[in-house]
Amino acid sequence: MSDDTDSKALDGPHPNERPETSRRRNAQGIRIDPDAEAEPDTERAVLSALVAHEPGVLAKVASLFSRRQFNIESLTVGATTDDDRARITLVIEEPGPGIEQAKKQLQKLVPVVSVTELPSDATRRDLALIKVDGTHPDQVNAMADMYGGQAVDAGQETVTIEVTGSEQKIDAAVEAFERFGIEEVVRTGTAALTRGAERTAAKVPPTAEPESKEVPADD
Amino acid sequence: MSEPAHAAEITDSEEEAETDQRPVSTGAESVVRALENDGVEHLFGVQGGAIMPVYDALYDSDQLTHITMAHEQGAAHAADAYGVVANDPGVCLATSGPGATNLITGIADASMDSDPFVALTGQVPTNFVGNDAFQETDTTGVTDPITKHNIFADDSDRVGDDVGSALALSREGRPGPTLVDLPKDITNGETDTEPGEASVPDTYQYREHAETESVDEAARAVEDAARPVILAGGGVIRSEASEELYEFATRYGIPVVTTMPGTGAFPEDHELSMGGGGMHGTGFANMALHHSSLLIGIGTRFDDRLTGGIETFAPEAEVVHVDIDPAEISKNVHADYPLIGDAGTVIEQLTDAVERMPDADTWRDQCQEWKAEYPMDYPVPEDRALQPEFVVEALDEATSDRAIVTTGVGQHQMWAWQYWDWLEPGTFVSSNGLGTMGYGLPAAIGARVAADDDQEVICFEGDGSFLMTMQELSVAVREDLDITVAVLNNEYIGMVRQWQDAFFEGRHAASEYGWCPEFDKLAEAFGAHGEAVENYDEVPDAVEAAMEYDGPTVIDFRIDPQANVYPMVPSGGNNGKFALSEGQLDEI
User: At what angle do helices B343-353 and B242-252 cross, to 10 degrees?
Assistant: First the structure.
């Protein structure tokens, strides 16, 4: 017995009499210098997934992100030129390891063919329909021109403007139209493709193992 | 995965198919044909309205034997344990609605432990789906988060292939539960399409071999490791890689800790075995994990019950992580050397790539010293109340090395895990990840059906856990299954009582029974053999009687109600600071 007063103890040195270790890990399981621990920054990533075009796929993706508590900023889904494949574009906000984990979990779903994280220079577009008060149609149209948009519905009481562009541009447009009194807004979320000849998502499942991201231990 | 052996099975059954099988005429017959073609021999299930066409088609099958369980949860656990022991999918059947929802716990259990498992559920006819019809549940919706994949069958011509996909997906890559939902009009529907060979969808891929470059990097780390430890998980057993593991560990002299699902992956009587690690692992296993400089995790997901608090887990160790599922890499613990592939294949790659033994003599000596310092010698109180560890050891002695042990969940499970000597892979069949009380008895039924005749099947249960599924005893009697159920009865939900004593000032909220049915007499009422044991002297005779009885026996062991499970790393705690008694929990 290590402790005579504790007759029910198993044999062995007391916890406080055992050798100590010098290092520790952070919450992501990465070994760190205890003096240099910092919360990892949240990053925004655009993921493009090529998936089997069949019922229930969107539900599986949404359910995955919900149960694993990944933050989705937006999600769009649509057909491709291949009848058997659809493309899902997701914008997520996570610390770096969370983005890696989200990609791998998404790839793991059986109907998902491939997943790509798009580079920051990828072509990204949102679409918004902004319904504003129709009292000053000329001014509304002038504002729409400034944002490269156009009126798609005009009536006695309201005008609806269509604007496409980056998320930031849409944010700015919505803000600008507020002066006319916005009745309603609908936004699509981000659709994105890589620039140039590079493929957004491979048509066959990847066989190469994902790159292991080098995580510095001491910063 | 023993693919060649499996391929041989398929060929055999296909040859039979050519000689004596009639062509299929309905979706249900196609479902049965797909099971037969894949070599399935046993099914566990419960009848009901929407699944009746499938049962009707089973009526004509010579190959398939169906075991009717008392409750669908029992069917799921039995199929799960069958799959674990056979290392090939166990299949269960249930009807729609409550039949399907009763399977949920078993499916979730199979999911957490990556078990090969297929559920076939009846569903209301497709023209009723979505209308809240009688016994309708959105089964694919409900089971989506707890299956590897599920399929709503919507075509009588394809339903057999859907079942084939479910079998193949459950078995290939990282195993896991799959489900096919079978609407009644689809199974009743006419078809003359024979199902093809079971195959995974073309969108599904996995790797067998790790990349050579990554293997070489890991091999250099192994050669340079001063304090290497292998952490062998359930993936080693699923991959049937125990021999490869043995070769790797013994050739390079690397101590081996197992996780709970990895129990038996490495023989515990070997000098290099450090036993099981984690919350209730041995002191020496946790010392080895905590102080290692290179942790080689193989087929493990670094579950929180194993790691304790992640901040203090193996804090000085670089991590080699071998797993077939890329999503496990750096999920809980950052992998410095990720190796994606099948456990057996990658261990062989690694064994070949390592060129010299690590210089770890001092470390191996240290590991042996820890074994001497922290022996698993349970204390016996002065009143000589029956200690549960003694019961575990008595049954271990009375049985062969290949005996299969199933357990429920709680203190009894931990005692069985700690005090049985694990020498063979696949002999510990437990609810590891989900922690399902009541798993033990239905699992023993599934294990008995899958096991060889010379393998004894011992089920450890607690009184609380046993009461959750004990109706399955009727199945064991009806099917004349030779199993021994050892109820470690303390008239408590014991693990909760232990935690209440340790962390809730001894306030025993809803954990005290203070009374239990007489399990031996209950067994007799079911038609099983019953024994009751109150002291040490009665243990040998009761065990001998159970071993001699050719059928199910229940032994009600009235154990010391105050017995606790130690060592213990409190939840989120530091593995290096495991407590050896309740008193020590306050001091760490």
Answer: 20
